[in-house]
Specification:
Blueprint (H helix, E strand, L loop, with lengths): L26 E2 L4 E5 L2 E4 L1 E2 L4 E8 L15 E4 L4 E11 L8 E7 L6 E2 L4 E5 L2 E4 L1 E2 L3 E8 L15 E4 L3 E11 L8 E9 L11 E2 L1
């Protein structure tokens, strides 16, 4: 474009650009995640690159965004428990803003709790330990005669073990949930004072 005044003076030509969009701007690469994890990484794009993004993560299903638009195309949430929501909008080079998406993911950063176990100072042989968890879990355990051994076997779905040895034995156990959280090792003492009437071969060490 150029301009001319009343005295026929003509300006230099000015060149100006504009980005026009004829389609609705949308976010891409995002969907709800129903698999429980310790951390969730969201990655996204838009239908008219390049875009900037306005986003926030919290535990509310909806949120009115007030954060600035940034060029970031991913975010990792690695703390918290329960359902978390990514709230996000995109803005393209023409200034068009997409509809907001509220995307859910479930996090679990709390270790499971072992249930059903306690010390037993007057047990009969066989001494049987049975356990469960505060949530779905697998167990890593060991039976021996030492008070503070750390188990090293693979985690398994087994939920009981036993000893027939007379005297003091210890069950060392920790559990892991489906998200990968592992409890601290617990140590349970059992003093077996009565021999099994059916006989059998006692053992002093069992690594489960």
């Amino acid at each position: 474009i150029r301009a001319r005044d009343k005295k026929n003076n003509i300006s230099q030509v000015g060149h100006f650009s504009a980005v026009l969009s004829s389609s609705t701007l949308t976010l891409t690469g995002l969907s709800d995640d129903s698999i429980t994890k310790k951390a969730k990484t969201w990655s996204w794009g838009c239908s008219a690159e390049p875009c900037t993004y306005q986003f926030a993560v919290d535990k509310n299903p909806t949120l009115t965004l007030a954060t600035p638009f940034k060029p970031d195309t991913s975010f990792t949430q690695s703390t918290g428990d329960g359902v978390m929501y990514l709230h996000i909008k995109a803005k393209d080079a023409s200034g068009s803003v997409s509809a907001q998406k509220d995307i859910s993911a479930t996090l679990d950063n709390t270790a499971p709790v072992i249930q059903g176990l306690s010390d037993n100072d007057d047990a009969s042989s066989p001494m049987v330990w049975n356990w469960s968890c505060s949530e779905s879990c697998t167990a890593q355990f060991l039976v021996d005669t030492l008070p503070t051994t750390e188990p090293t076997a693979e985690f398994s779905n087994q939920n009981s073990t036993a000893t027939t040895q007379i005297g003091v034995s210890y069950l060392h156990i920790r559990v892991q949930d489906t998200a990968g959280n592992i409890s601290k090792t617990s140590h349970y003492k059992a003093t077996v004072t009565t021999a099994s009437s059916s006989g059998g071969c006692p053992f002093t060490k069992y690594n489960g």
